[in-house]
Amino acid sequence: MVETVKQSAVSQSETPYLRISNVVKKFGDTAAVDGVDLEIRKNEIFALLGSSGCGKSTLLRMLAGMERPTSGKIILDGEDITGLAPYERPINMMFQSYALFPHMSVADNIAFGLKQDKLGKGEIDARVAEMLDLVQLRKYASRKPYQLSGGQQQRVALARSLAKRPKLLLLDEPLGALDKKLRQQTQLELVGTLEKVGVTCIMVTHDQEEAMTMATRIGIMSEGQLLQIGTPAEIYDYPNCRFTAEFIGETNVFSGPVVVDEPDRVEIESSDLGGRVWVDHGITGPKGMQVWASVRPEDVHVHVVPPAAGANTAKGVVHDIAYLGSFSIYHVKLGSGKVVKSMISANHWHENNVKAPTWGDPVYISWRPDMPVVLTR
Amino acid sequence: MNLMKMKAKFRLGKSAVISIPYVWMLLFFLVPFFIVLKISFAEQALAIPPFTSLLQEEDGVIRGLSLYFGNFSFIFSDELYAATYLSSLKVALVTTLMCLLLGYPIAYAIARTDPARRNILLMLVMLPFWTSFLLRVYAWMGLLNENGLINNLLLSLGVISEPLHMFHTDFSLYLVMLYAYLPFMILPLYSHLVKMDVRLLEAAADLGAGPIKAFFAITLPLSKNGIIAGSMMVFIPAVGEFVIPELVGGTDTLMIGKVLWNEFFDNNNWPMAASVAIIMVLMLIVPIALLHRYETRELEGKGNV
To answer: Is pTM, for the whole model, over 0.80?
Structure first.
């Protein structure tokens, strides 16, 4: 008995709950989704992140059944659902516009899906009440959607999509219709609700902050392809390409050929920097290969006196300072004309007993050799 | 001071704009209505105009008011009038239902095609209006006649050996009524259906409703106001329709429009014709009031969104 439980637990963690294999969707000649492979674990909150037109919404619509893949397979919980109509799938979606039925009350909106399953009236009422409690809208059960605020409508849409206890929940820009302040507050509230009911969830968003706050894993999409999949920390700290590095957070990219390639270090001759970028680990690639080194603004230091001469440093002038309260972003213009961003905490200068440099002051930038990430594409 | 002047000017301009439709209604609806109402309480007379005056005058001094209720009591006592009103309502109701059953799918199809083709299809719906209504009815006479186009075609093809009796029957009446009033059903239905958010249907499908269920649960209730508007646009004028029953309807078709014509032109009985018309207007006020109520409710609903 104990053994079988263990076995099933193991098999669950080994076989993914949702498997998308080599899915392609073409509209005419252009491929909106171009060969996507993705595996989602049970009870995971996965975010598809990308700018508009990257194919993330098309991928979501294929999961919902509103678009048919040109080729490829979608398997959910061991069942091939590629060819099923939307109303045959154990998947529910929360629409970006919410798509609440305007002629039905909040309770009737939530009950709609349950009625399609021909559940008994008692069961439907109980489930609707449970959902109303979950999103704290019990008092509003008999209101019509237009009588609710944007945030309340979002919660009705969530309750409606969770009422049928779907195997997979799809969220299309779940908070895109809310204003910024309400959005930040709602992000954690939404994650809390999703974790409470324990549902496997794929969300689509163009807002990296939203994806990083809410998702356990993120997939970066561009031009119909998944460029990188990982936890928010993995994607931020170890981007695998320039697109990801620049899309997630801010970064400074220095390009140039590899001039020294040893097992324990790499040196890149960068004309942008006017010197060499030195990285304290080796890369796999031939000498002379064109690469890009990405350095996050928080890893770039600004000095008023020259640091020890060598790599990873350059001279420049303060081009701009963006004061953001607890920290400032210094824009340092190098001799090459490249502007490097550096994030400096508000009390950095005070702690080091240095007068803060201001517009036009000559400064030096530097970073530690373990900070740059070398990107080959 | 200057600002107040401008405000006063603006208010004057606003009320001027608003007053135009009111003046129009007053001049061309309310005044004629009261003239007809006045005539309905008069008696037929051999005079010009052919009815008695309501005011009793003696030497230019008004002595009193004489209202004659004989027309109304005659209408209520003669069963033929009641039968005619009922028959008119029946014809209008059947026409409305036929227009709805045929017009809804047409309006739905137009609303769901891509926008470029939509305009062409709408044009085709409105195209008959470019030809005079009378001409179009006459064209149907040429089609449905015993030796009309349809009969000749079927005879020459050998489908039938005797000409079909289609003309001057209930069949021809309803066919031409349907033909004439269909656009008035399609256009308001279309304008409601095209506004509908198709994502609602995607949401319904997502929640497990197949296409037929989604239609009855979402599309139909959301087009309710379009159905009401279209039905009123067909029903109200169809009740008083004169030309179609006269030209293509059966000789035994009782329509209130025909009675009006007979009383007015054949019997020269203006007061009787006016009474018949007044009762018809009162009968129609109920559906008009309903339409008005739904229109205002819809406007208020939109204001809330």
So the answer is: no
